[in-house]
Design brief:
Blueprint: H1 32-45, E1 52-57, H2 64-73, E2 80-86, H3 97-103, H4 109-122, H5 126-143, H6 146-151, E3 155-161, H7 165-175, E4 182-187, H8 195-199, H9 226-240, E5 244-248, H10 252-255, H11 258-263, E6 268-270, H12 275-287, E7 291-297, H13 298-301, H14 305-313, E8 320-324, H15 341-346, E9 352-354, H16 359-371, E10 376-379, E11 403-406, E12 411-416, H17 420-430, E13 433-436, E14 439-441, H18 445-454, E15 457-465, H19 470-481, E16 486-492, H20 502-508, H21 513-524
Parallel strand pairs: 1-2, 2-4, 3-4, 5-6, 5-7, 7-8, 8-10, 9-10, 12-13, 12-15, 15-16
Antiparallel strand pairs: 9-14, 11-13
Length: 526
């Protein structure tokens, strides 16, 4: 645990290749019931006696996948136990009708306390106690959320205090004797037993190393992060255009929408952990004249890929996707890395895909995207940029046009995104032309063709998987125009990269100054 979420250490999430006790790899929410149901069926078909248990939080229960699994499990008659950890907490404040339903009339302890008190009073009169038991299901329907889950075919038990181990263990032992789908509702407090975590549950979500005596010391950034650049732009844009709405699938803090939610509460929509719904919700709003901005992590947009194509792109709707955490993400590891968005976005018709090189360009690209009346995406990395001055005034960029940042000879380095600056250093060493491509789609075909005709080697650089990425777009452009030139593609490898320090991870991929220089020199010596 000393190297938790560090290179060479254990991951921050369960991984089957790390431990035999990690039954299933997880990191994105709402998958546990589906996975456990599959395991329960496997046990039944293999005639293996064991229990399949899915633990899911109340925040994760807001996702459609959880209800798809419940719907399926209720008719499978498998020995499955679902434990709902109801702590009234997700990364952002929990939202939605389900959360209101769970919270209604109780903290979770109200019903259990009332039930124990009633049994003590009625226990002296057995016939009355039996009558009370018969009426219990009707009472539960009024006082607890049990009816909802029992309609799915589960035997609902609870709610119970998850911090009362005597009650919890006894309940689990009793459930072991029951067959079929069981649902245990457990009420807990996020961070219970550690006051700093109790008081700051969001801060203590997904922690790395810290001193328990001091708690997590918030870092003071000297430069604004890309997330902050987006959040400021969103508020500025909202002030000038009342059609703008901000949409997030339960990532208000992570995606930089806190200020927007406070200043424009009527135009802020947290739809819960429901990425598919978020995208189609935005599409519906766009159909009726609004200009939605969907703030979403690259890795989470993958969960709504069908909606992106079917509901937004086919209808050519003006939805802006502000894609955070593009590229490598450090301690969160492969499940949260935004390694594939350029590949999976650029193959979709109608969409414009932009990659800023710095913070100011990010702001201008977001403005550019908002001016379009078609789908658009601006993808940017986690953390801070190099610290360029951010211009308050917003100007739209010419669509599909790159810019030459350094003129040189023989070698042209075509950069997509924030790796521009180490490439400029490499350009100085090699006297190479360095281009900030800006657009992955539409690609600046004329510029690519001109560079290919005046240079001996083109080098494409991106913080995205090489397969199908921006470099592949350059190759396709050259082939379409019949231009033949040597091309070197640099980017992320065809593998899932473990967690680590982001700077070191880029170096390991050969995407720092030294690595880029080494790869180009090796190509030249072939």
């Amino acid at each position: 645990m000393a190297k938790l979420r560090m290179k060479g250490g254990v991951a921050g999430f369960p991984r089957r290749d790390e431990s035999e006790y990690d039954a299933f790899g997880t990191a994105h929410s709402s998958t546990s019931i589906s996975a456990a149901l599959g395991m329960a069926v496997a046990s039944r078909l293999g005639e293996v006696t064991r229990r399949a248990i899915a633990i899911i939080g109340d925040g994760a229960m807001s996702a459609g996948m959880a209800f798809e699994a419940l719907n399926n499990a209720g008719v499978m008659d498998a020995n499955l136990l679902v434990i709902l950890n109801d702590n009234d907490m997700s990364i952002s404040p929990p939202v939605g009708a389900l959360n209101n339903y769970l919270a209604k009339l109780m903290s979770g302890r109200f019903y259990a306390t009332a039930r124990r008190a009633g049994e003590k009073v009625l226990g002296v009169v057995p016939p009355v106690l039996e009558l009370a038991r018969r009426a219990e299901e009707h009472v539960k329907g009024m006082m607890t959320p049990g009816t909802l889950f029992e309609e799915f075919g589960f035997n609902y038990i609870g709610p119970i205090d998850g911090h009362d181990l005597d009650v919890l263990l006894a309940t689990l032992n009793n459930i072991k004797q029951l067959d079929g789908p069981q649902f245990l509702h457990v009420v807990t407090r996020k961070g219970a037993g550690y006051k700093l975590a109790e008081d700051g549950p969001i801060l203590y979500h997904g922690v790395g190393k810290f001193d328990p005596a001091k708690g997590i010391v918030a870092k003071t950034a000297s430069k604004p992060t890309y997330t902050q650049v987006f959040g400021d732009w969103l508020c500025d844009m909202a002030a000038s255009d009342t059609r703008l709405i901000g949409v997030t699938p339960a990532m208000r803090e992570g995606s930089g929408l806190v200020r927007f939610s406070q200043e424009y509460p009527n135009r802020y929509f947290d739809v819960g952990i429901a990425e598919q719904h978020a995208v189609t919700f935005a599409a519906g709003a766009a159909c009726d004249g609004l200009k939605p901005v969907v703030a979403i992590y690259s890795t989470f947009l993958q969960r709504a890929y069908d909606q992106l194509i079917h509901d937004v792109a086919i209808q050519n709707l003006p939805v802006v996707f502000a894609i955070d955490r593009a590229g490598l993400v450090g301690a969160d590891g492969p499940t949260h890395a935004g390694s594939f968005d350029l590949s999976y976005l650029r193959c979709i018709p109608n969409i414009t895909v932009m990659v800023p090189a710095d913070e100011n360009e990010c702001r201008q690209m977001l403005y550019t995207a908002f001016q379009l009346n078609t789908p658009s995406a601006v993808r940017y990395p986690r953390g801070s940029g190099i610290g360029v001055k951010i211009q308050k005034k917003m100007n739209a960029l010419p669509i599909g046009r790159g810019e030459i940042r350094r003129s040189g000879n023989k070698i042209a380095i075509l950069v997509f995104g924030t790796l521009l600056f180490p490439c400029l250093d490499v350009g100085e060493v090699l006297d190479a032309t360095v281009v900030n491509m800006r657009f992955v789609k539409p690609l600046d075909d004329e510029l690519v063709s001109d560079l290919a005709k005046t240079h001996e080697l083109l080098v494409t650089v991106e913080e995205n998987t090489i397969m199908g990425g921006a470099g592949s777009a350059v190759l396709e452009s050259l082939m379409a125009r019949g231009v033949i030139v040597n091309v070197l593609q640099l980017g992320l490898p065809d593998s899932f990269l473990d967690q680590g320090d982001p700077v070191q991870m880029l170096a390991d991929c050969g995407l720092d100054k030294a690595g880029i220089l080494k790869s180009i020199q090796a190509k030249l010596s072939d």
